[in-house]
Amino acid sequence: MRNSSSSASSPNSVISNYMGLNPGTSGTTDTRSAILLAYCLGLQEPQSNSANLAQAKQYFPSIGAREAMVLVDAVMREVSDLEQVKTIVTRMLHSFTKGLNQTTIGETFLTIPYIQELHDRNLRLGDVLDRLKPLVITLNQGQLDTPTAAALTSLLQELKDLLVQYEQKENLLFPLVEQHIEEHRCVQLMWAIHDDVRQGLKNLLELLPQEPIPLNAANRLLGSLFFDVRSMIFREEQVLLPAVVDRIPLSSWQNLSVGQYGQGQVSVDEAPLGTKAGSVDLVTGCPSAAQLIQIFNNLPVDITLVDANDRVVYFNTPADRIFPRTKSIVGRKVQNCHPPKSVHIVEDIITAFREKRQTTADFRLSLRDRYILIRYVALYDNVGQYAGTLEISQDITELRTLEGDKRLLDWQDS
To answer: Torsions phi, psi of 388, nearest 5?
Structure first.
């Protein structure tokens, strides 16, 4: 059982589950790893961590990306409070900066289109942050007039447009890491920081049109935004990618493309040969696979099917899907398809479905000026055993405005 204030098991027992760490210049791998993890966990209270620091600092210059990723994973196993984890990981990666700055990605992998695209976007993000700096200095001087606020808003919108790469990471890269890398908990931490950045941007864009502009609040939000975006670039390029790049098959990297994200409807032509015309006996009829694709693509809802083992097995692709999905989520644990802050709710719903205390769960939210209904439906087999969950999402913005009747005889071809 994890706790939020101290390690629940010895650092040595936690870290020794992982193999292949750099043993350093002295001592065994287990000894080095135990010392480093004790130091990392002690960063919850750095003022009383001097003894751990004295032992651990000899290893800092030689810590590489994979070892750092394993240590982050171990910290996340031991500390349940995500805000504490954020603080610990920020401090530990700062300590390991010298070693991590020496990390490189092999030439073979630098040619992978997805990695190239991620790197290019990070350069553009850095450029936007550089152009924001003079405006932030003006803000700190208490001189944020309306034209400056407008310029700031424009750059923040540019930043927001670039940060679509966070959603691409969550839907493309993270499933790949979860599939191939055992110590993958760091992607949940990254997702939580993505959420922090998105919320901070939203708050800033709502705050800047105000008169007068609340300068202290704007300054705090901008400071957090700068730190989180800069540190995310470092974590992607100096930790995550170097740690996993050669442990994921090259063919998987080559098949990874940002074009997969929100790529639109699956075509009937994509059905495997031999299945398009073949019928499926559904008791009340025998549609072909091609017809089933057409049926699911033309329903006015998003559908995602999760099996009894909590793994995604299917999603439909309507023309205007509310929540984009990629094929990489098939086989992924449903818990990993949600932001960390809502995972416990997902688990509670599934538990209630398994125990038959609930059979549906409904939620409503406003999203990009649309009103969305989300319904989870429990599925059971013919003997009453839990068989999975169906997630149904529908844009009901127009439905909420309907009044009166419109009958078949009222139809006109115009």
So the answer is: 140, -170
CA 210, distance to chain mean position in Å, is 31
Q: Cα separation of 405 and 101, whole Å?
A: 67
CA 170 to chain CA centroid, nearest Å: 4
Round to whole Å and give the CA distance between 141 and 344: 43
Tokens at residue 301, please? Answer: 């809802």
* Residues in Cβ contact with 264 at an 8 Å cutoff, skipping those fewer than 6 apart: 317, 319
Residue 98 backbone dihedrals phi, psi, to 5 degrees: -60, -50
Domains of the chain: 11-100 (no CATH), 107-258 (1.20.120.520), 299-401 (3.30.450.20)
Give the number of other CB atoms < 10 A from CB of residue 250. Answer: 12
Burial of 76 per CB tally in 10 Å (0-12, 13-18, 19+) = buried
**pLDDT at residue 20 in the model:** 42
pLDDT (tens digit per residue) in 250-260: 888 988 876 55
User: Which two structure tokens, joined as six digits, stand for 154?
Assistant: 């424009």
pLDDT of residue 257: 72
* pLDDT of 372 over the 70 cut: yes
Given pLDDT bands bounded at 50, 70 and 90, which one contains residue 19? very low
pLDDT of residue 261: 53
- Closest by CA position to 375, among listed 391, 357, 396, 354: 391
Label the pairing between strands 370-380 and 360-367: antiparallel
pTM (2 d.p.): 0.81
Q: What are phi and psi of 322, to 5 degrees?
A: -75, -50
Measured CA to CA, the distance from residue 309 to residue 302 in angstroms comes to 21
| Amino acid (1-letter code) at residue 303 | I
